[in-house]
Amino acid sequence: MLDIQSHVSLKSYNTFGFDAKARYWVEIDTDAQLQTLFQLTEFLAVPKLILGGGSNLLFTRDFEGLVIKMSIQGIEVLREDASHVFVKAGAGVNWHQLVLFCVQNGYAGIENLSLIPGTTGAAPMQNIGAYGVEIEQVFDHLEAVDIRTGETRIFNHAECRFGYRESVFKHEAKGQYIISNVTFRLNKQPVFHIDYGAIRETLATMGISEDKLSIKAISDAVIRIRRSKLPNPAEIGNAGSFFKNPEISKDQFETLKTEYPAMPGFPTGDLTMKVPAGWLIEQCGWKGKHVGNAGVHSKQALVLVNHGGATGSEILSLASKVQQSVEDKFGIRLNPEVNIV
Ligand code: EPU
């Protein structure tokens, strides 16, 4: 049975807390329900929005179509070989719960991705990443349903075309598939990633020496760092990083460096450098600023926040002002990481 509802408020389904409405709404708990949905011919032509945890979404308007909230649960070990464990999770599994499951069982590879808000089904969409790890490093394959036909198809690693906060699902396949299950290939032998940002010093503060390192310790350190920098959406509405970190040519980077010697930059492996957008935004004086009910977070300038009662348009207008000032000062265009509806 499918319970399709009308005129549903999305306020508690997006981490910015915007009070947008869905014309139609359905929650999907099983693969079978997803199949049933495609037998309802009256909805075939209706525009659809697929919702996971709503942690990377900015609503500027009501959605005049069908919002499909993906809540398929279940974490299952499919098989293992000498060095890997293959773990399948339903699209609706809370990402952090999956991380905790893996950490508790000694399956390594996603401990650096602890506490990222959102669901497992949304994770491959933008190849979620943090502290030197992206999910493409442990991704095996996913199952997705074609929104036009209801047929299930498998996407392997290559077919997902992962990039920095990118996948085929944000480009050619945008809006065409509903991810229902994702399978990860975790490692039995951990490879510790502690070089990024504050992980090493946080471990030291926690009294964990390198010979005591474990995936649990890394997960705990990441949780500590995230809690200290990133606002909890349950308290202050936000969608994590609002912009992607821009990649600029090495030439442009060197030129800017002569004027701004403190500008951080990380080589990407090709001829570009990735510059932290948070630094650029902070240099433009935005960190901690309020504009009406919208604002730039006081501890991480890459995060735009809803201080209560802001609309999606207010956040978007603040985002354009931030973009403009970064462009005026540095000649760098910031691109949003969040999906704007
Ligand atoms: N920085 C500042 N001021 C700020 C923020 C950052 O100067 O207000 C500079 C500092 O130099 C800092 C550097 O930027 O050392 C990097 O900052 P941070 O480690 O916080 O990471 P980020 O590049 O700002 C990215 C991801 C985050 C992820 C962190 C940690 C993107 C768009 N964001 O942020 O992801 O948690 O790295 O790995 O790549 C998200 O996607 O929603 C998200 C939170």
UniProtKB/TrEMBL annotation:
Location within or outside the cell: Cytoplasm
- Which protein is depicted? UDP-N-acetylenolpyruvoylglucosamine reductase
**Cofactor(s) for this UniProt protein:** FAD
Q: Write out the similarity annotation.
A: Belongs to the MurB family.
Reaction(s) catalysed by this chain, per the record, are: UDP-N-acetyl-alpha-D-muramate + NADP(+) = UDP-N-acetyl-3-O-(1-carboxyvinyl)-alpha-D-glucosamine + NADPH + H(+)
What GO CC annotations are associated with the protein?
A: cytosol
Give the record's pathway.
Cell wall biogenesis; peptidoglycan biosynthesis
| Task of the protein | Cell wall formation.
- What are the residue boundaries of the FAD-binding PCMH-type domain, all occurrences included? 18-189
Q: List, in alphabetical order, the Gene Ontology terms for molecular function in this entry.
A: FAD binding; UDP-N-acetylmuramate dehydrogenase activity
Q: What biological-process terms (Gene Ontology) are attached?
A: cell division; cell wall organization; peptidoglycan biosynthetic process; regulation of cell shape
Q: What is its EC number?
A: 1.3.1.98
Instruction: List the catalytic residues.
Output: 165, 241, 337
NCBIfam families in the record: murB, PRK00046.1, PRK13903.1
Q: Which UniProt keywords apply?
A: Cell cycle, Cell division, Cell shape, Cell wall biogenesis/degradation, Cytoplasm, FAD, Flavoprotein, NADP, Oxidoreductase, Peptidoglycan synthesis
